[in-house]
Specification:
With 114 residues, the chain is mainly α. It has four helices and no strands. The protein has helices at 10-30, 37-64, 80-101, 106-110.
Amino acid sequence: MPRVSPNKTWSGLIGGVVAAGMVGLGFALLTTVGLHPGRMIVGGMVLGLVAQAGDLFESALKREYGVKDASTLIPGHGGFMDRVDGLTAAAVAAAIFAMAVNIHAPARALLGLN
């Protein structure tokens, strides 16, 4: 989306999604609760895509309203939300998914332990 965020690249998207999948794999391999590595890879990759979408959404909002920086808290970085927009989107998506699967034990649902 060059009009929304001209510095984003396809290689950055692919690298971010692959890295998120590898973090999921690492998490599965380093825990002792019996997580399924494939499920953690896919979950990480999906959340990586959601994070990218959250970043693009925030960039689109800033362009729509003609705002260069969302704040001056972190000078030269577009503001605080530019640092956490993807994290925010991924956290909300993970929470919605987990509660939809098992409202009484969302953490277990997110980890596939149901």
